[in-house]
Amino acid sequence: MSLPKIIISFCVVFLTQVLHADNLQPIADIEQAAYVHALNDAQLSYNSPQVLVESLDNRLRLQQCEKNLQTFSNSAANTVGSRTIGVKCPAATEWTVYVPVKVKVMKPVVVAAKPLSAHTTLTESDVRMQVMDIAELRQGFLESTAQITGQQLRYPLAVGSVIPSRGLKLEKVVKRGEQIILVAAAGTMEVRMNGTALEDASLGDKVRVRNSSSERVVEGVVHSPGVVRVTM
């Protein structure tokens, strides 16, 4: 092959490759579409969410989409943490790419201010507020120290650990065998009697009590520590 023919052949191949590259869908556009979809979803439920998009393989080659890219997801819009956003080209040369993203929501949550043992009845001095990503808090969390009132820990926690909503139980303010005040209400009248609790109970719980005078067992609701109300 003569030199001119070689040069011409090289130019044709080069131009073909450039034209082909120009017809490729930019990866950045796909990632941006996934980012916008995830951010819009998160903003429906949270203030100032952060969306991190996992970079796609730069070797990905897709035909330039002739229409606007479409996005979708099978997970709930308020999903935090890891999720996947589908990006689809609805044109004749149809293709779909799934983009991994991570949604972070930073919020002040209640954490242990010191090491806490199991069954500790929490007080304000036991806790403090700390900003954390709630996507990582699988056991739940509290957003106010006021929420610990009357709560006990189910298991021990190290300093700085999140106070988990699932790891709390209401303090037992009535104990089995404890002498309590039984308040019987009839209209606007109240009668107070002594009684003995037959089981442990928290505020608002139903509890069986034996009337010390009549020995009758009645069921009432714990009104406050040592006080059970029944309706006559």
Please explain how this structure is put together.
It contains two helices and 15 strands. With 232 residues, the chain is of the alpha+beta class. A hairpin with an 8-residue loop joins strand 2 and strand 3. The chain starts with a helix and ends with a strand.
**Main sheet specs:** 5 strands, mixed, barrel
Distance between the termini: 112 Å
Unreliably modeled segments: 1-19
Which structural class do the helices and strands define? alpha+beta
Mean pLDDT: 87
**Strand order of the main beta sheet, please?**
10-11-13-14-15
As a whole number of angstroms, the C-alpha radius of gyration is 32 Å
Number of helices: 2
Strand-and-helix sequence, N→C?
A: HHEEEEEEEEEEEEEEE
Silhouette: elongated
Strand content: 35-45%
Number of strands: 15
Percent range of helical residues: 10-25%
Main attributes of the structure:
alpha+beta, 4-stranded antiparallel beta sheet, elongated, 232 residues, 15 strands
What's the arrangement of secondary structure elements?
Elements: H1 3-22, H2 27-43, E1 50-53, E2 70-72, E3 81-89, E4 95-104, E5 106-112, E6 127-133, E7 151-153, E8 168-170, E9 172-174, E10 179-186, E11 189-197, E12 201-202, E13 206-211, E14 217-224, E15 227-231
Parallel strand pairs: 10-15
Antiparallel strand pairs: 1-4, 2-3, 3-4, 5-6, 7-8, 9-12, 10-11, 11-13, 13-14, 14-15
Brief summary:
It contains two helices and 15 strands.
